[in-house]
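Standup notes, structure subgroup. Blocker cleared on the adenosine-5'-diphosphate input:
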Amino acid sequence: EGVGRTENPWEVDRGCLQEVGETLGEGQFGRVYKAYWNTSILVAVKAIKDDCMKRTEFLREGETMRRLRHPRLVKLYGVVSKPESQPLLLLTELLPGGSLLHHLHALNSKGTPHSHGVLAKMGAQVASGMAYLESEKVIHRDLAARNILVADNLSVKIADFGLARFIKDDFYLRRSNVKFPVKWTSPESLVHNIYTSKSDVWSFGILLYELFTHGGSPYTGLSNKEARHSIQDGELNRCPPDCPPTVYSMMLDCWRANPTDRPSFSIILPTITSISDSFITQ
Ligand code: ADP
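Run returned:
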């Protein structure tokens, strides 16, 4: 027992992976590609550039991420961390539809945008995964349409939950970094670096805005620096054209200045679900 085993129960042997097909995407932390795991299971492999990940912390604490299982979360199967000279690989469930942001843009440019019913249903699916994360006391920290993946035309899953915490501060979290997702970030996170499930709720409001603008940009036309000032001054995104008032009212609830005044995901979930049902049965 134990002979020849790696000390990490979720470690996968690099030799068990065979890359297939084209690159799935280029993330800010590295390349994402499709591979066979043990010649039978198709997975998405995310190669993390070494200079941006706190590798040791991730390997120590990241196992809690693997234990999180929910139909609305992208499954993390395992990691390849050896040899240390090579990039860290994350093996996750493969979602053929790519990112939600890309999906919304693609449908919109084809002239076939989703109905309000479908958009609200996707919002409800995200809220369902987030309610689970909230109950597990896990903060996403980077909830945005670019981090939601599409399984098929009507169903979505949350990716990269909890990963932001392992990104080196100087690479990603530094306030001046262009990659810092200012437009998705709550005022208390921007000003005091405070992250809670209620700051995820703020980002969820921005995600609803992205859905109901079919992939539009929040704070359109503002630079990150200008958006930071707007957020700190309490200026909110206006109601998108054609957005149902019930949905905009939920966005405004998510954007309350005081985090304790924002609804929790356990409250958001039934509300957005009934909004979604009302559109579908209309
Ligand atoms: P990063 O977070 O490093 O910016 P992402 O995880 O967003 O990188 O990945 C970049 C792109 O790769 C995504 O926009 C998506 O198109 C694709 N991608 C990522 N993960 C998967 C997956 N599990 N299945 C299918 N495509 C994926």
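Discussed briefly. Strands lie at 17-27, 30-37, 41-48, 76-80, 88-93, 148-152, 155-158.
Next: hand off to the docking folks.
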